[in-house]
Amino acid sequence: MHNQAGAKGDMAMKNNHLIRKIQMECPLCDKVHEIEERTRVVNTIIKGENVNYIEKYYFCSYSNEDENEFVTGRMENDNLLNARNEYRRVHGLLTSDEIVAIRENYGLSQVDLAKLLGWGEATISRYESKAIQDEAYDNMLRIIKENPLMAYGFLVRNVNKFTEPKQSDIKKRIIDNMDSYGKENIKRQALESEYINYNEPSEENGNQILDIDKLESIVTYFAKHIGNLYKIKLMKMLWYTDSLNYKVNNHSMTGLVYRHADMGALPIGHYLIMDLENINVKEEDDYDNTRFHIFPKEGIDMSCITQEDKMILDRVINKFKDFNTKDIVEYMHDEIAYKETKDGDIIPFGLAKSITLSV
What is the pTM of this model? Predict the structure, then answer.
């Protein structure tokens, strides 16, 4: 086995495979010369399944045709890891790199992360290098990736496994994560919890489960086109958007579920919608009332809005952009969907077929 001496940086393509030339001592011809590092797609069997993955190998042009390829021990390990990661991707499991990223995000060693989760000390090391985690272990890793509060819960449960300085370090990293991305996830989970009874397509959610990414993008799309967008008006425009989309496509756009309220249709969890990190809301005092003014959110990824979606959204915008809150509430009060439901009732999307708005 020989170590790589240095790379020339000379890269090319041959037979559709990437080639990198490296100056090293070749174990096949015992000469120091440029060796080609090549890649190819190969097939192997992992847990009884065929897996295609990218394999790296060295090619010596000076050796005879029967023996002109070789791999180092490190390269062989990397190839095996590539194969296992492809298996993970196919089965929706975290890859070894993703597990490393979770661990490093909390500033933990492999042993520390295993202790935090109450696992054997070598477990994380195996998952990052060779073993494939089962679904239960994968779910636990995803939980602390997506919710720092859960990581804190594990710390409390296994606190006796760490020294006091280490406890403080881990706790600080957890708080840092909450300040960076954890708050958004927690707020999303709070809204999702309101929809736990609507996790299957039905007439109540317009044959569409809750899509928070789409909801956030739609709100910013509205805010970019309407300057006087306040909470109550927004809620009515969301109902018209979902109802018109249901009328045209037989499913809503956001998956929100609406109740009959004094001010018209109001989505379940409306107060949590305003708390989402990707919705830009400013509170404005209006005499004795506080109004919620919605502005565009800069930098939000709006690729989930299709051209067909924009046709619906633009129709709603063109209809209601000059309406004030009172106007749109009164307009909604005249809809059959409102008249045929009572205060607190879910407004079924079957009644959306009768809305006065059309494309």
Answer: 0.56
